[in-house]
Amino acid sequence: MSTNSLSSKSAGAGLLSALIASLCCITPVFSLLVGVSGIAATFSWMEPLRPYLVVLTILVLVFAWYQKIKPKTAQIKPKTALEIACACEDAKKSSFWQSRKFLAVVTVFAAIMLAFPYYADVFYPETNLSESVISNSKSSYIFEIKGMTCSGCEEHVKHEVSKLPSITKLEVSYDKGNAVVEFDESKIDLESIKSAIDKTGYKVESFSKEK
Q: Are the C-beta atoms of 142 and 208 separated by less than 8 Å?
């Protein structure tokens, strides 16, 4: 296998690894765009594997760049019969898919994918809550939620819950794995809020009144 071919295949493997590493955060955005909220948490189970996939992506891309740069930095040594026989193939002008430009594009795109969890929230519309409600029925509850892995997950939950009436305060944290919801109990019940969260694919494990 030629150096160019090996480098191209490594670049493809690096790109695939980067995409898989970001699936848990790409899926919520995709589900918002296509209007199928329930698939948001489909790949949340992959979050524990993300650090390993990130390292794998980096290693594969480093190897691809090494293969691409190595011919210029390697020491001159006698060629074997096989290398001489394949010299004509290496002498040919590489296609775009085997060029450094393609590898550079793949590297940049992989970096964008790996960083996706840190900017996923920009794809979500601004959360609009109800105007302040003056009522003796206003309460605040903490919902423990399973499956959130990034800021995109937070925004997805906010997006669904904010559609409900009389929500006056809404804080969602994937780090804490919960959502703090303030609402008017005379106009909406706890089960409606739970159902809105469950609709995203992330599941409410329990809820309790905020002290």
A: yes
Give the sheet arrangement for strand 167-173, strand by strand: 167-173, 178-184, 138-146, 203-209
Spatial separation of the C-alpha atoms in residues 80 and 70, rounded to whole Å: 17
Facing residues of 145 across strands?
204
> DSSP characters for 133-186?
P--TTEEEEEEEEE---SHHHHHHHHHHHTTSTTEEEEEEETTTTEEEEEEETT
| Rounded Cα gap, residues 40 and 37, in angstroms | 6
With H, G, I as helix, E, B as strand and everything else as coil, classify residue 209. strand
Contacts of residue 71, defined as CB under 8 A and 6 or more positions apart, other chains included, come to 3
Q: Are 65 and 106 in contact (CB under 8 A)?
A: no
Q: In the structure encoding, which two tokens stand for residue 81, read together?
A: 């019969």
* pLDDT (tens place) for every residue of the chain, 211 residues total: 566 677 778 888 888 888 888 887 787 777 777 666 667 677 777 778 888 889 999 999 999 888 888 755 444 556 565 555 555 555 455 677 778 888 899 999 999 988 887 788 787 877 777 655 555 678 899 999 998 888 888 888 998 899 898 898 999 999 999 999 999 988 899 999 999 999 888 899 999 998 7
